[in-house]
Specification:
about 20% strand, two-stranded antiparallel sheet, about 90 residues, about 0% helix, mainly beta
Length: about 90
């Protein structure tokens, strides 16, 4: 199985709609960050389906190292800048 690619070294603010299901990109290859666009095919990494509990703002992880997926937990602060765009795991 491939390692995830660090899509960015920061979270992204998104607006979510209550009861809507989203697919968060775990592989880092999607061009629709932080959401899946199917680019994971053949990597052995699958997206994370989640349903928003409420309508509003959320900060989603783009470093792919969070321990609270799909939400940012600050782990990106430990990801070196030169890891962006590359396969990486802490």
């Amino acid at each position: 199985m491939a390692l995830p690619i660090v899509a960015a070294n920061s979270p992204v603010r998104v607006q979510l709609e209550a009861d809507q299901t989203y697919h968060w990109c775990r592989c880092g290859r999607s061009r629709s960050q932080p959401f899946c666009d199917g680019s994971h095919q053949g990597t052995g990494i699958t997206p994370l389906a989640f349903t928003a509990k409420e309508t509003g703002e959320a900060w989603l992880c783009r470093c792919k190292q969070t321990h609270n997926a799909p939400n940012c937990d600050g782990t990106h602060k430990r990801v070196p800048d030169d890891a962006v765009g590359k396969e990486f795991a802490l």
